[in-house]
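Hey team,

Sharing the CCA tRNA nucleotidyltransferase run so nobody has to redo it. Sequence (516 residues) first:
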Amino acid sequence: MVVPSSLPPESRPSDGEFQRRAARNLAPVLPLLQELGGMFAAAGHELALVGGPVRDLFLGRSSHDLDLTTSARPDQIEALLKPWADATWDIGRDFGTIGARKGDAIVEVTTYRADAYDRQTRKPVVSFGDSLTEDLVRRDFTVNAMALRLPGVEFVDPYDGLAALAARMLVTPSAPEVSFGDDPLRMMRAARFAAQLGFTVDPQAQAAMTELAGSIEMISAERVHDELVKLLLAPDPRAGLTLLVDTGIADHVLPELPALRLEVDEHHRHKDVYQHSLTVLEQAMALEGDRVVPGLAEPELVPGPDLVLRLAALLHDIGKPATRRFESGGGVSFHHHEMVGAKLVRKRLRALRFDKETIKQVSRLTELHLRFHGYGGPGVPSRDASGEVDSQWTDSAVRRYITDAGPLLSRLHLLTRSDCTTRNRRKAAALAAAYDSLEVRIAALREQEEFDAIRPELNGNQIAETLGIPPGPVLGRAYKHLLAFRLDQGPVGEAAAREELLRWWAGQPEADASSS
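Structure output:
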């Protein structure tokens, strides 16, 4: 294994320094781990803390998992853990794993593995091993191939994971084409670690990812979904997404994203949609949490990290490639790309096994993300003689904006604001002012009216009685008309609602049929 040349040898901590760090950072669980190590040693077995928890000691990250590996076989592990733990489970027995809980601590102990892969599926032929070193070489990256032997807290690093960690570099313990060929999901993990931990990928490993990109298709959609979600919820998803696109992996798991790299013509008649989408994602993330809006007493709050908002920010423009048209006057259009995009979002998220509610919410935000640009003109508000923003939207239009967004309104606020990536400061300021104005108007209307419970001012029974019709499709149409009337006019009272109902009914063919 080649240690990255950018790392000076003196920057590697000594084993003694590592043990001091381990003792300090592991202090809350060290007694428990040493107790376990003593139990296994007394029974003639090796035991070691391994993988992510060891890596996180150096990164200063808290690790909720305690993953251990041992020379003991599953039946022997269970026999040792049962009298010690408050509870045990063996759902992973076929893979050598027995889980246990003692107090608040959760541990998973796995027999040393020496698996073989058939390269046709990701599922290995499970084979138990007898060596910690052999077990570590089958792990994804050297930063996850370090261990602490217990109970003595002896540092084991046969593949120089500590050096790679100090260089913040992802290197595979074995040749990358072998590692990724055995388990293509490791390529997705590389992108996730880039997003979560700020690591870069060793050039040889990135070349192997590019060469083997198509093999990701043997991985189940559920597994890809899990890695993609972790990536999107990470501090820097752009880094991971860029890696997936640059290596060609995204062509197989999220093809709509690289498809946004539309060729920009020599006249630069539209912006780079791919880079724009990544920037919108970053800007949406920056708005998560408390956000103070001028004129609003309470801050808008979308707690982060918010998966629905981040998915919508990334995918809101995926309808553009299919709708791009170069106009005769030299312009370019993407007419109805929000509607096309909403359909594409539903299709892709279903393929990635997202739940129905997430699919519904992300596609709805995609569909609504352009709605604001009718406010005050084409994205730029006009101003009255005093310089104040002069909106062209009526209260009825604002009501519809609120009700169409429903519970997604706060997220729609953030998505719409994030969608402004212009470098023209004057235009950006005008858009922000327009949206400030809209949010203030929304707040004022919401104070006056209960939008979450808005209903027509005549219920179904009253409509049926007024028109003399039975329940059915015609009654449903009448109800929808009165609901639209309520949104247009605001609260008007039952008498005005009944008058409007009769006016509408007079123009319906069913009214003529009932009178004859």
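The chain has four domains: 1-167, 175-254, 268-452, 455-515.

Ping me if you want the raw files.
A.
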